[in-house]
Amino acid sequence: MAVPWYPRSWAPLAAALTLLLVTGCAGGDVPAPRVERSSAAPAPPPDATPGTPTPLTSPDGTDGGTGVEQDIDAAVSVTTTYWQTHWPELFTGGYNPPRILGTYDGGTPGTPVCGSEPLPDDNAVYCPDGDYIAWDMDLMRWGHARGDAWVYLVIAHEWGHAVQNRLDAGLVDLARELQADCLAGAVLFGAAQDGTLTFEEGDTEELADALTALADRTPWTDISDHGDASQRVGYFSRGARSGVKSCLPDVVQ
Ligand SMILES: [Zn+2]
């Protein structure tokens, strides 16, 4: 995935996303990693969110693909730009981006806390107490080895929780995790339409793979559930096809 997935057609996405399986905001058993195609990601825009980790400047193309740090920076940039641009068209009131706490190393003494709890090992979070997004680099490296679309999905999903925290309660779906998937689909495919993100060959399959790898083994029944693979893919696809408003409860559409 590169900054500026052109969706060549909706058919491959629908096909890829219709098949799906996944855990919390991360983790889970996974199939063998796939080989990445190389891609060149432009530098993030200068107005990146305050607190964004400094982009690394490792050269492109020497390792068969972009580095995980570069893809994380690009995903943050693409996601914040999408919400900054489209919020006024969607919601009343101004938009303030969440803070980007960035990388943490879960399971160690220095792990940051959300409230009184250390951030979870090998996971990614939006912490309402502090209004920040953070990710364990082990999760990102593990997922990135399967495909670079992983980091875009994780960041856009967590950002979806930050958006939920900014909405009136009536706009937040009881299935919060699935709504976050829907919002992630709306952002990533909306960004492609805006020209700020380019889909490369294999990216839609990688997204389906990531949603599957991160899904619960059982269908959604409780507010804390993430939903099974077909549900996660279904919600993501809805957002991808029909945008942010399609992720909101029916009453407001
Ligand atoms: Zn989540």
Describe this structure in words.
With 253 residues, the protein is mainly alpha-helical. The chain has helices at residues 10-18, 68-90, 137-144, 149-164, 176-194, 203-213, 229-242; strands at 99-104, 113-114, 117-118, 124-127, 132-136. It has one domain. It contains 7 helices and 5 strands, in the order H-H-E-E-E-E-E-H-H-H-H-H. The strands form 2 sheets. The protein has a 3-stranded mixed sheet. Strands 2-3 form a two-stranded antiparallel ribbon. A hairpin with a 4-residue loop joins strand 4 (124-127) and strand 5 (132-136). Helix 1 runs parallel beside helix 6 (203-213). The longest helix is centred in the first third of the chain and has 23 residues, at 68-90. It is globular and about 45 Å long. It starts with 9 loop residues before the first helix and ends in an 11-residue tail after the last helix. It binds zinc ion (ZN). Keywords: Signal. This is Metalloprotease. Residues 1-28 form the signal peptide.
How do the strands and helices of this protein lay out in sequence?
Blueprint: H1 10-18, H2 68-90, E1 99-104, E2 113-114, E3 117-118, E4 124-127, E5 132-136, H3 137-144, H4 149-164, H5 176-194, H6 203-213, H7 229-242
Parallel strand pairs: 1-5
Antiparallel strand pairs: 2-3, 4-5
The structure holds zinc ion (ZN).
Measured on Cα atoms, how large is the radius of gyration? Answer: 17 Å
Strand order of the largest sheet: 1-5-4
What's the main sheet like?
3 strands, mixed
In quaternary terms, these chains amount to single chain
> What does the overall shape look like?
globular
CA-to-CA gap between the ends?
31 Å
Helix content: 25-40%
Number of domains: 1
> Helix count, per DSSP?
7
Would you tell me the overall average pLDDT?
A: 80
Secondary-structure element pattern, one letter each: HHEEEEEHHHHH
Give a list of the ligands.
zinc ion
Q: Which residues form runs of ≥5 with pLDDT under 50? A: 5-24, 26-64
Helix and strand content put the structural class at mainly alpha
Strand content of the residues, in percent? 5-15%
DSSP strand tally: 5
